[in-house]
Amino acid sequence: MPRKVSTSGRKIVYLLALLGTIVRKRTLHKLVYTLQERGAGFKYDFVSEGNFKFSSKLDKELEELISLGYVKRLYVLNGKFNGLYSEAYSITEKGVKLAERAEFGEKSRKLIEDLVKEIKSKKKSPSTQLSP
Q1: For 66-80, how does the pLDDT look when each residue is reduced to its tens digit (9 = 90+)?
Q2: For position 78, which CATH number holds?
Q3: How much is the pTM?
Q4: Which backbone phi and psi does 129 adopt, to 5 degrees?
Q5: Which of 26, 66, 71, 124 has a CA between 20 and 30 Å from the CA of residue 91?
Q6: Is residue 110 part of a domain?
Q7: Number of independent structural domains in the chain
Q8: What does the alpha-carbon distance between residue 42 and residue 111 come to, in Å, rounded to a whole number?
Q9: Residue 80: inside a domain, yes or no?
Q10: 3-class secondary structure for the chain?
Q11: 82 or 32, higher pLDDT
Q12: Is residue 11 part of a domain?
């Protein structure tokens, strides 16, 4: 019997699909934290490590999405001279198909879409700030 994807998992897949790019782990945690603060219905416990928001429950959710084939884990060069790699995530074709159904509330869908628009406009205009 196939395992079902949680509502939070569906939202994460939808977020990755809209972003349409590789997303570093730290960035994904920050985005989900921001969405949770805005009322998108995530229920993760986040701890602060400096300016990094981290949730072990979110990490477990990502592991589940990877094992189900909706998300893939990548390791990308962190851009510094020391040559270390950072964990990152990308949506799979199977994930894109799941995201097209967007089976969760309209409010959450709108909040995710608005955040992605905000991020994409920020990339075009360096003076725009991402606010929680």
Answers
A1: 999 999 999 998 776
A2: 1.10.10.10
A3: 0.88
A4: -110, 145
A5: 124
A6: yes
A7: 1
A8: 12
A9: yes
A10: CCCCCCHHHHHHHHHHHHHCCCEEHHHHHHHHHHHHHCCCCCCCCCEEECCEEECHHHHHHHHHHHHHCCEEEEEEECCCCCCCEEEEEEECHHHHHHHHHCCCCHHHHHHHHHHHHHHHHHHHCCCCCCCC
A11: 32
A12: yes
